User: What shape does this take?
Amino acid sequence: MVAKLLRLLTLLTGLLFTLTGVQWWVMPDAVAPQFGLTLDTGLGLSSQIGDMSAFFLLLGFCAFMALVTRRGVWYTPAIVLLVLTAIGRIIAWVVHGAAFATDQIALELLVAVVYWLAARSLATNSALNE
Assistant: This one.
């Protein structure tokens, strides 16, 4: 039952991350404000679209690969990316005077924990099947 819930959460977050990444490609003006961003121009716009889409598409890709292959190793890049993002937000607050992004940090860490549990669940289930 727990394994099914973790797969469902992985599917839902994977879909959300993928949708967000595609939104950065096709309608960045609509998605940027959700992240407190205004779109730049020139090279700055290229960086925003390229970096933000890659971030979310990688998260979606890892989630889907974990679901399809049932190999927990696919969760690792997503977990690392989410935790580093949360750490970066904390550094931005402490060092650079950014607003403390409580909701974003909590969500990033929550999804990282879900992915970690899902990876452990896959490892446990594969060990039982051997």
Q: What stands out?
A: The CA atoms of residues 49 and 111 lie 23 Å apart. The chain has one domain: 2-128. The mean pLDDT is 95.
